[in-house]
Amino acid sequence: LGASPGDMARLPAAWLNIAPYRELGRNAAEYLEEQFGTPALYDAPIGVQPTLRWLRQLVEMLNDVGARANGPVITMPPLTAFSLDGMSAPSGVPWFARTADMESFSSKNAFVFGDATHTVGMVKFLHDELGMEIAGAGTYLAHEADWVREQLAGYLPAAGSSQLAAGSNPSSNPLPTADCLLVTDRFQEVATRIADLQPNLVCGTQMERHSCRKLDIPCMVVAPPTHIENHLLGYRPMLGFDGADVIADEVYTTATLGLEKHLIDLFGDAGLEYEGDGGQEMGDGNTLVSEEPQAATAA
Questions:
Q1: Catalytic residue from among 7, 101, 185, 269
Q2: Is residue 171 part of a domain?
């Protein structure tokens, strides 16, 4: 962005600091607030509703500082201003979550594991905005475990109980117990928990992706450690309205849809060809041998 080390001397002049990740920049923001009185916005806008709350809080905090500096009052722009064409809704998730395909997700459950920020954000997004059930969650950051438990109070199933049903009110559920939130930095323990729960979708790190390949469970990488293949060339944010669309797309293309499974059960593979097969497999499991004549070989 064109900044240089010399610009660090201007940090106290900021009206507001933004530190959405607990794992990165939070200590610096807290130091600047303590030393220079610069307020900071610490929430992570993961999902549509959290982004709306984040924007309203940003406007409120800027106006508080601006009032002391005799600055102009900032107002929240219309939501269409956040869309690409300036006329549409800023995110397609609210509509997308009500389509026939996404309604089938209400009977599916997910397990989420990663750092503190992404674990909390993904659990709330999957449950609150996509209507999925939560089979369990965990983090490898032991020093953030208490914060994660506090944030996911009511989202996680109590120890020994079934997952939280989609559409239920998290505030009416008891606080999760220590056994409910998996806190470990050993990927083998995470793999064991996934194998026990057998969720329909796992959101985790690259290590969970490896484990889920062996378990034949769909997995999307949402937290570090990651692999180069998780960082595509295109613009794929995780925060804000665009980030909500990206996450929803990833969930949709990673998990197996109920209708998709039903069609596979009903029609088999629909005569699709697979590499290494001598022909096409029919819906009854029999092999359809290709009727094309073999190419003549030269004498």
A1: 101
A2: yes
